[in-house]
Write the structure tokens for this entry.
Amino acid sequence: MKPLRRAIQDESRGSLLITADPYISDAVGRLAGAAAARLTVVACGVDAAHQWSRAPLVLVGDDQVGEVLAIGLARRPGVVLVGATEEPSLWRRAIELGAEHVALLPSAAEWLSERLAEVVEGPARAGVLVAVIGGRGGAGASTLAAAIARVGLRRGLRTLLLDADPLGGGIDLLLGAETSPGLRWSGLLDARGRVAPDSLRQALPVATDLSFLAWDRGEPVELPALAVGAVLDSAIRGFDLIVADLPRTGGPVAAQVLARATRTVLITTADVRGAASAEQVLATLPACDVGLVVRGPAPGGISGELIAEALELPLVGYLRVEPGLAQAVERGDPPPRPRGPLAQICARVLDELGSVRAA
């Protein structure tokens, strides 16, 4: 038999629904199941008396408001009145009950699902999403994205590296983790609505404590926009820092990432072609906060400041050539080195964000 204290603790983590209405009971039960939320259902207020003050969220069906008021349960925060029919008396009863909100089903189903999920996940938190895109092919966007993610991890941030480029060769190869078990994009085709952050974190592969989401080998899968959005929203709730490696050609994943990005980093090379190509890529991006990284030097190259001025972008930094970095990556040693130029640029990217903090 479960110890009494443990039973009370388990009970207090779940929401409480008081209703004898089968429609309300079934509808809320489905929402709780989809949100992986624990829900206790009792048919009358008397049966709920011992849980009334302990449950973090109490849902009272409109059929039981009178009984709850009659037994004199103390007013408390976190009470929602759930109804199926809008009647003038519903709002008066909500006031008498001290309810913080009235949820009319089915129209309020999405809001109620979010509220049930908050009980499981705790207060809403918003991670920072950094999108990295190459101004030209071979500029080093994937390497920079992986390096930013690993520097974030070194700062104690719960970090996700996300591969948004289906034709990029695989961010897992860059991490030396192509055989790591875990979920790839193909396993998320049917993701919809609210994906529990804990479930996503536990399902993703990990490389030296860094969670990542990559593509499968072979022909790229077609990802529905709804699935990509659900995964990204879950990641933002579940991680402190998300770094996405974007393709230069756009696509459904890139569009969803850019719509949610806190900062976009455009990296190009220190030459005329690099500047011209970066200008074309920049023209395809939606209105967003973009910073420029210039990698060089190149034969006959031009300064990072000049390219930044031409593109009308703030210059995050000029990334000097780091001898031996490419060879280290080929050996399966993910970037960056602790004190090299790449690590310094990554630190600057994170410092400029300012708001990213470990949970």
Observations:
- The radius of gyration is 25 Å.
